[in-house]
Design a protein that fits this description.
The complex is a heterodimer of chains A (288) and B (304).
Chain A (H helix, E strand, L loop, with lengths): L2 H21 L13 H8 L3 H32 L5 H9 L6 H11 L8 H6 L5 H4 L5 H26 L3 H9 L4 H12 L1 H16 L3 H10 L9 H11 L3 H25 L4 H13 L1
Helix pairs in contact in A: 1-14, 2-14, 3-8, 3-11, 4-8, 5-8, 5-12, 8-11, 9-10, 11-14, 13-14
Chain B lengths: L1 H10 L7 H27 L5 H6 L8 H12 L5 H33 L5 H13 L6 H10 L6 H8 L3 H14 L2 H9 L4 H12 L1 H16 L3 H6 L8 H11 L16 H34 L3
Helix pairs in contact in B: 4-15, 5-8, 5-9, 5-12, 6-9, 9-12, 9-15, 12-15, 14-15
The chains are: A mainly alpha (288), B mainly alpha (304).
Chain lengths: 288, 304
């Protein structure tokens, strides 16, 4: 019964990790002698450092703004419950239906001063021409906005849900003791949903590191050259599918996988995030 | 002592938020809701207008209903109606993924919860790691693997790759270990019931809530997926809608002035309609299943 899942897990989850390692030493134009120098070669590639800087710039905008917005908005939604707020939640989650290619289309339109519904705010910032926006140096902000709206509302709704799991007795007791809304949020609610927030942080961080679709489409579909090999995943794509350097692409994939794997292992073993799974593992250990 | 505390608490009024505080919080909440909805409204309204109207009229003005039909007819003129093929590809590929992913994850979750297989620990850790690793991370070795298996440009590759559903397995595992008591499994086993009968007799009748939740997440996660089909399905006739939308970007001058003028009537309303076709199914699912999404995410991340 477990075989279909086991086969899929081995084939697409585990085997590719090993395959990435076996691909690395292959000979290529960039690494004519083959071998593990592929890692060094890919790091020294003239496109690597700019791509790394771009991704870090993007993440410096996207990750903190998303985390802060999710925490602040979910707490504010929870502050004074009202039936009408379910419509707010529906409004927040809607942009999550617009991701990848559609997000590029929609945000291209939103940032286009000639026909954007946000003409007012854009002209407030002195933006009246498309050329002022769609520039390579603005990409961290443009992509940050796209990624923010694709994901923030979705997480606001989920974290609002996690706040609902706090028992009303705890909240009432704190209220009776004179806790203000802000104190309640910072001292009671936030610590109680800490695990959910950590889980969100990991997924947002891991997703941000692998940004590909949006810059790739901006570059290929909207303005050629604007985001050529802009992100690390785009560079891996170019190495593999345009340069035919699978060793280099596999090295880059492994380098990108390391921080994510480390975070995943920390979450699994060092936090109580997956209590149930950990309990199983621990009880096995004790028995073993 | 406890009476004193009770009296002290009763004497103090339960602290409420000030009116100004509540009001300003609500204003910020509503402003953010408007900002979230405006892009969606623009997308839904754009195909009702003509291309010049998109620029000339108010961005959120409604054109005419016939605009949607015209845009659809124009879209059909692109490469002999390939857009319809993309739509059908999206439907059957996603339906296959949703079925295969849900069935494999439900069965695996059940086995992990109910039976004492030896590799349970390692399977659990592997599931959690794959769950936290974005699928894009492994796209290069997956491509190599698909190529070695001779499945390149075959929709079966996307179906198989995307059917790996560790998050679903984890959800099913949590569901079966919390809703069905271990004693029940053990008693049934003592009576000579094997895993398969255990599943069909005990778990299956109880599994509709988890199956529907798994189908929901599998659909939402895969419908708009871009990277995997983009890499594995290079021929335009095999594209799914999101890849097709990207293809429209770079092969028509609608939003890409770099492409020279063509005789095709593909402009902004047509591109926006293609965008609506990608986004609308997810919007509808969100509208009708928001509550389930919250429950699912919470039971998935943490067992309370």
């Amino acid at each position: 019964m477990i075989l279909p899942y086991l086969a899929l897990l081995l084939l697409w989850g585990i085997l590719p990790i090993f395959l990435a390692f076996t691909e690395v030493p292959h000979e290529s134009r960039a690494n004519p002698d083959g071998g593990w120098d592929a890692f060094k070669i890919v790091i020294q590639d003239f496109r690597f450092l700019p791509a790394l800087i771009h991704v870090l710039q993007f993440m410096a905008i996207f990750v903190p703004s998303t985390l802060i917005a999710v925490i602040v908005f979910s707490l504010m939604l929870d502050l004074n419950p009202g039936k009408w707020k379910k419509y707010l939640r529906l409004a927040y989650i809607m942009p999550a239906s617009v991701s990848g290619a559609v997000a590029v289309l929609v945000w291209y339109a939103m940032l286009q001063p000639t026909f954007s519904p946000l003409q007012g705010p854009l002209s407030f910032f002195g933006i009246t021409e498309s050329a002022q926006i769609f520039q390579t140096e603005n990409l961290p902000v443009i992509l940050g906005i796209m990624a923010f709206f694709s994901i923030a509302g979705y997480w606001i709704v989920i974290q609002y849900g996690s706040l609902q799991s706090i028992s009303t007795e705890v909240i009432e007791a704190a209220r009776i003791d004179g806790c203000s809304g802000l104190q309640l949020a910072l001292r009671i609610k936030l610590p109680m949903i800490k695990k959910y927030i950590v889980y969100m942080c990991i997924l947002i961080f891991a997703g941000g590191l692998q940004i590909f679709v949006e810059p790739q489409l901006l570059n290929e579909g909207i303005q050629r050259g604007m985001a050529e090999d802009w992100s690390l995943d785009q560079l891996a794509y170019t190495l593999a599918f345009l340069d035919g350097d699978f060793g280099g692409a596999a090295s880059l994939a492994i380098l990108l996988l390391i921080p994510t794997l480390l975070l995943a292992l920390i979450v699994i073993y060092k936090t109580d995030m997956f209590e149930e799974a950990n309990d199983e593992i621990r009880s096995k250990k004790v028995k073993g | 002592m406890s009476t004193l505390i009770t009296r002290y608490r009763l004497n103090r009024k339960i602290r409420q938020e000030s009116l100004i505080g509540t009001l300003s919080a609500n204003i910020v909440l509503i402003a953010f809701a408007i900002l979230s909805v405006v892009p969606i409204l623009w997308l839904l309204l754009a195909p009702s207008k003509t291309d010049p109207e998109i620029t000339d009229r108010h961005p959120l003005a409604f054109g005419q209903f016939s605009g949607y039909l015209t845009a659809w007819r124009n879209l059909q003129s692109f490469n002999d109606g390939v857009v319809l093929t993309w739509g059908l590809n999206s439907i059957w590929i996603n339906a296959s993924i949703v079925i295969l992913a849900t069935v494999s994850a439900t069965l695996a979750g059940f086995v992990l919860a109910a039976s004492k297989i030896r590799i349970k620990k390692i399977l659990m850790v592997a599931t959690l790691i794959t769950m936290l690793t974005p699928p894009m991370a492994l796209v290069v070795p997956i491509f190599v693997l698909v190529d070695k298996l001779g499945l390149m440009d075959n929709p079966l590759s996307v179906i198989l790759v995307c059917s790996l559903y560790p998050f679903g397995t984890f959800l099913a595992y949590i569901y079966f270990s919390t809703t069905i008591p271990v004693e029940l499994y053990e008693a049934a086993k003592m009576d000579g019931c094997n895993d398969f009968r255990l599943f069909t007799k005990i778990a299956l009748p109880l599994s509709w809530p988890i199956v529907s939740l798994l189908m929901f997440f599998a659909f939402v996660g895969n419908w708009a997926n871009f990277f995997i089909p983009y890499v594995l399905l290079p021929s335009p006739e095999n594209y799914t809608l999101p890849i097709g939308l990207g293809f429209l970007f770079y092969s028509t001058p609608a939003i890409n002035p770099g492409v020279g003028a063509t005789s095709l009537p593909i402009f902004k309303p047509e591109i926006a309609l293609a965008g609506v076709l990608v986004a609308l199914p997810i919007m509808l699912v969100f509208m009708f299943a928001q509550k389930r999404l919250i429950q699912g995410m919470l039971s998935g991340s943490i067992k309370e």
